[in-house]
Structures are given as structure tokens and as C-alpha cells.
Amino acid sequence: MAEPLKKALFLDRDGTINIDPGYISRPELLELLPGAAAAIRKARDQGYLIAVVSNQSGVGRGLIAPEMLGKIHERLNELLQMQAGARIDYFACCTHRPEDECHCRKPLPRLVYEAQAHLGIDLARSALIGDRLTDIRTGKSAPVGLTVLVRTGDGKEEEGRIAEADQPNPDHVADDLGAAIAWVLKNLNK
Fold this sequence. Notes:
Elements: E1 8-11, H1 36-45, E2 49-55, H2 57-60, H3 66-84, E3 90-94, H4 110-119, E4 127-130, H5 133-141, E5 146-150, H6 155-159, E6 172-174, H7 177-187
Parallel strand pairs: 1-2, 1-4, 2-3, 4-5, 5-6
Helix pairs in contact: 1-3, 1-7
């Protein structure tokens, strides 16, 4: 008998989990947003796997050394562990520039599918949280069970664009990752 599929949270990285100062090129530049580690721990305690799905075009632009991306993610897990005993289960990143016209850059859902295949995830029992409408479009096209726009990072500005005709509507808008995860835990698969 096959193992049942798992539920997960797909999280954008910069502006959602950590402060987004621009291109993070070294691990020591990484700084978590307040409450992010505790929120991720809360989701893990409820049985959710955590997958980061992130566009990291700084690699393709030559602003981030390719070998640094893994070190930055190691540092992210160290900070999450130190602050709340949390961790990310899987990192799926597009390192191409937008003009490369690749098949993995969000809002295309390929990063979600990569994490899904690697971790054995049931998309209908999962959610995507990010600070950009491209994140919401990614979640809708996958499709995951719920999408949440956070007001951290670029989220406040992006929230003002929701009314535009070609923009996707998130299932919810939350002040930060903690509020987003609390809402997902209450509303997903009721």
C-alpha cells in the first residue's frame, strides 16, 4: 500500500520568512522576520511539511555565487532552529533571470511540483504563502488548497494591485507569516 500524501506549506523566502534587503548574497546577510520561526514551528507541530519556493535570479545575474545559495539556506535553517526549533524540509529555487524565459520561474508552478514530488505532498491539503501576487498566481495554477498574501516584504504594495483585472485574488491577506499560518491552520480542509 502506498504511503499517504502529506500536507505542506509552500513559502516564498525573501519578504515572507526573512527581511528582503535586495539580493542576499552571503549567509550573514540573512535576517528572519519577527515571528517567522515560531510560525513555521507551529505549522510543523500540526504535521505540515515546509517547502520554500523562491525565485533567486541574483544567481543568474551574477550577484549571488551559485555555491552561496546552499549556504544561505543552511543559515536559514540554523536561524529557524535557534529561534524556535523549526526548519525547512525542502528548497526549490529558480536561479534564472526573467528574460531567460525558463520553465521554473514563478508564477509558473514548476517549483511547487518539484517540492511536491520530492516530499510526497497532497496539493489540495496544502497552502502557498508569499508577499507577491506572482506567489498567489503560482499557488492558483498548481493548484494548492489555499493561497495567502502577507503584507511583509512587497505585500502591502501588492495588496493594492489585487483589484487590477489581471491579478489573482488570494484566499486571504495576512499581516505576516504568523497570522497567515494561523489562518491556514484554521481554514484549510475544514
